[in-house]
Amino acid sequence: MAGGSGTRFWPASRRAVPKQFLPIAGGRSMLAQTAARLRGAVEWEKTIVVTSRDHADLARRHLPKLPPENLLAEPLGRNTAACVAWAAIEIAKREPDSVQAVLPSDHVIAPAKEFRRVLLAAAEEAAERSALLTFGIRPTSPATGYGWIEAGPPVAQRRGTPVHRVERFVEKPDRARAEAFLAGGRHLWNSGMFVWRTDVILRSLGEHAGALHERLRRAVDEGAIESAYADLPSVSIDVAVLEKAAEVLVVPVDFTWSDVGSWSALPGILPVDPAGNCAAGGVALLAEDSTGCVAWGKSGELTALLGVHDLVVVRSGKVTLVCPRERAQDVRRLVARLEREAPGFR
User: Fold this and answer.
1) Residue 217 forms part of a structural domain
2) Which of 9, 305, 319, 340 lies at 20 to 30 Å from 298 by C-alpha?
3) Does residue 243 share a domain with residue 97?
4) What is the pLDDT of residues 102-113, one digit of tens each?
5) Which domain holds residue 337?
6) Is residue 100 a contact partner of residue 1, using CB atoms and an 8 Å limit?
7) What pLDDT band is residue 81 in, cutting at 50, 70 and 90?
8) What is the secondary structure of 174-224 as a DSSP string?
9) Last residue of a domain, which of 224, 243, 258?
C-alpha cells in the first residue's frame, strides 16, 4: 500500500513526492526498502503495488523490476479499505486460491530475515483457516497514537510463532488505558499489516462492506475505476472489516518495527551522536551544546545547531521547518493551513 500523503513529514514529504518515496530510513526510499524486504518470500511477479495515479510513474522508477500490470493507480485516495478491496479483486482474477500479505510501504522493520520467517508462518496459518490475520507489535511504551489489540488465548503455532485469537480492537486509547494495557501484558500494537486468503477477504468485504466491494467489483469488470472511486467511502480496512469480523487472529512479533509516524521517530531508527542528535537525508550536522535534535536536509548541505535541545529542523527546497520534537505530530496542522493559504508550498 503506497498511497499515503505523509503530511507529518512535511516539508520533505510533499504532494509531488510523499513520505514513502523518500529515503527516510536510509539510502533507499521506504517503498524500495519494503519491496526489498520481501525478496526471498514473495517474487516480483506476485508483488502488487497500489498507489495514487499522481505517483504511478514515481513508483515505477523506484521499483523498476515490478511488472507493469502489477501497479494499480487509484484516481482518488479512499483510505485502505478501497485499496485492499481493489487489489483482492485483481488477485482473485489471477490466482483465486492465493494467500495475500497486505503491507504498508512506509514502515521500518528489522531484521528482514525474521520478518520473512514470521510472514511465511502467518501465510501457512491463513492458508488453512477462514480467518483474517494481523501482526501485533509487542508494546514498549504506553503509546496513545496506535491502535491496540487485545490478544486472547493461542489457537496455533507456526514455525515457532504463536497465533492468538483477537478479543477486541481498541482505537488509540488515552494515556491511562494505554498504561494499563502495557502493564497487563495481553495487548499489542496494531501494526496495520495483514495476511489472509483471497477468498476469505473477499467474502469478509462482501459481508461487512458490501456496497464498497460490489461497486469495485463491477468497476473492475467494466473498466470504470475512475467513476467508482468518486462514490466510495473513505474508510480503513480495520474499521470496515476487521473490527466486525468474527474470526480474526493476531501473530505477536518480536522484530524491530516502527511506522515512523513523525520526524521525532528518526532517532529510534537511525544513528545518533553522543548527545542524541540525529541527521537524516544526507545533511551534515554540526551541533554544539545541543541535544536530542533531528535535522533533515540534502547531501552537501549543513545544519548547525548551538545551544538548542529537542528540536526538529528540516530544510527542503525553499522551505524550512523548526519545531519542538514533542510537537512533531502537529506538523499536519501546518499542512492543513498551507492547503488554504499557500498551496504552492504543499
Assistant:
1) yes
2) 340
3) yes
4) 999 999 999 999
5) 263-345
6) no
7) very high
8) -HHHHHHHHHHS-EEEEEEEEEEEHHHHHHHHHHHSHHHHHHHHHHHHHT-
9) 258
Neighbours of 129 (CB within 10 A): 17
Q: Which of 233, 258, 283 is the last residue of a domain?
A: 258
In a domain, 1, yes or no: no
What does the pLDDT look like over 275-301, one tens digit per residue? Answer: 999 999 999 999 999 999 999 999 999
Residue with cell string 497486505? 102
- Number of CB atoms found within 10 A of residue 341's CB: 9
Q: What is the pLDDT of residue 343?
A: 84
The rounded distance, in Å, linking the Cα atoms of 245 and 34 is: 28
Determine the Cα–Cα distance for residues 293 and 310; give it in Å rounded to an integer: 5
Site of grid cell 524500495:
32
pTM for this entry: 0.92
For residue 77, the one-letter residue type is G
- The verdict on 243 and 273 lying in the same domain is no
